[in-house]
Predict the structure of Putative TonB-dependent receptor.
Amino acid sequence: MSVFRSNRTPLALAITLALGHFSMAHAQTQTQSQAETRLPADPESVPTVVVAASALGVVGDDMITPVTSIGGNELVRVRESTLGETLNRQPGISSSQFGAGASRPIIRGMDGPRVKILSDGAEIQDASTISPDHAVAFEPMLAERIEVLRGPSALAYGGGAVGGTINIIDRKIPTAIPVNGLEGSAELRANSVAREKAGAFEVTGGAGSVAFHAEGVKREADAYRVGKGWSEGRKVDGSFKDTDTGSVGVSWIGANGYLGLAYTKERTSYGIPGHNHEFEGCHLDGGALHCGEHEEEGGAEHEHEEHAAGEVPTVKLDSNRWDLRGEYRAPVAGITKVRLRASLTDYQHDELEGAEVATSFRNKAHDVRVEAEHAPLGGWRGVVGVQTTKRDFVADGEEAYVPATITKKNAVYLTEEYKLRDWRFEAGARHEWQDITVNQAGLRDHDVSGTSVAVGAVWKFAPEYSLRASLSRAHRLPTAEELYANGVHLATSTYEIGNQDLDKETSNNVDLTLRKYAGATTFSLSAFRNKVDHYIYARTLDNFEGFQLIEYAQRDATFTGLEGEMKHKFSPAFEGTVFGDYVRARFDSAASDRNLPRIPAARLGARVDANLGQLHGQVEFYRVNKQDKVADFEGATPGYNMLNVGTHYTLRLGGMPAQIYARLNNLTDELAYSHTSFIKNAAPLPGRNVTAGVRVSF
């Protein structure tokens, strides 16, 4: 049971009251048309979306690397309780899937610190890069749009993002005064697989030069059911998740820009499945792994403390975040705009064994980015920026396997573009300095710097067709966890040892994409090769019944892969889609353990969409292949088939645009395992699941 469940007023009551109030207040007010909440029948009628994560404000069709932008009705349909599961079905993206509470996106086989997660351009400063059982401090129901940039070319956000960058666009800081003075939405949803109940609201108002915003989410979910045939039963013990999240924001908006401030509070509790206390007493003994009983001095045997059978730890997450955002257009001659993004985060999560806190992680961090866009010089338009971040990390308790550290980063970057007839060229560079101070005797501080560069081009070589290519060389600097870890980490069944001699990684990436972006048939097919020199990985030194002694080490590795999607419109009402992805990751040396662990299996699927006026329907099927290209001490994962169906209906409720939606995932109730999960056998994927909800806008 969640530590946050109480007798507080349900969010559903607040939403009901809000809807009643706004329905009366705006009964005579003109609202957005019904068509605005309907998925357009013609892909060509969809407005071109500017990619906010692009420093130059480039539209998606002109990006030099593949980009996915999910918003509107599509985002409502695919949203799950975690960011990783929300994006999991996009080509080239999988998730770390650690039960229901924690799931971080994996892009092209790369995860953790190699994938940067942003909140409208500012880093989300949580502890999710440290361990896969740590949740991303963000609620998907509050996202307006989610952008995914694949590959390391988004240099404005750090050379370390060699896998890609995810930018979550939200509404918590208004950038314009609502046309009618007030606008917003409310949503209620539930599912069957975990008896989830969730509600969300957001409202923006303003007058004159001042706008305000408020939003919130409440979610309660029990342990989820898995597909039929699992030997451990029907439910994953400890897979519950409860969340309370809210934000308030205010902006001053002028003719040439805006400046806004927002505060976000998140409280989440969730279980950690697969936590095996059998290995809690494992330790180093003469450089080898020792688990179980051992003799004390004098010959007496000592047995490590055991926890109650079936006891599942609970994470209690508490995050307080301030965001400051601003933009000023044409401040001086030659400067088109200046943009500010700053955040201050006080993040803490406690891991509880019963009612007692066993381990506590705290992360106090700030991130400041200022950039200026200059007017064209010799045909080149560009952005120059500076960024500074600081992270003060402390862990205490039984699994405090990383010492207290302070990580400081400073960076300068430049991105430029040039257009010539059917060509668009882009080039960028970033240099960053990192200083890690460690507060533990016997460990030394770590100072390092790195330079990343990228060039690319988009060529519209024929009507409706384009070819884009990019080359990049990026440095990823070692993290504090990779340098200084030393201790038991039960979530991943490992004893981790850091390596203070780690050098920076060097990613050499080539990306090619062929696109057809208009007409009855459209497609995007991408191929990539990412050769990483000095790739940092967890090398297994010893193994005891599945519990591994690992040390962070470096080897050259190469990631290659394909991803693509093709759509064909059979008629104004029916459209078919074929999609798939494949990634292969191997160490370059000829040693026996050449495969990298937890690399996603190949995936191929098809989808049919029907737009019948106000009614939209979808049927989707995909196959995830068996993954038998495994690392040492890693088992193969069987493949599975997934069949999903969904529908949504647009209408007006009380004069307000609304959408009623339902979807049925895993229709056949198949037992499925995710190869990318550390706990794949302890927490299979959810079984048959019905999700239904209603969303109303005003």
Remarks:
- Residues 11-275+312-697 form a domain with the Maltoporin; Chain A fold (CATH 2.40.170.20).
- The radius of gyration is 25 Å.
- The mean pLDDT is 88.
- The CA atoms of residues 154 and 361 lie 30 Å apart.
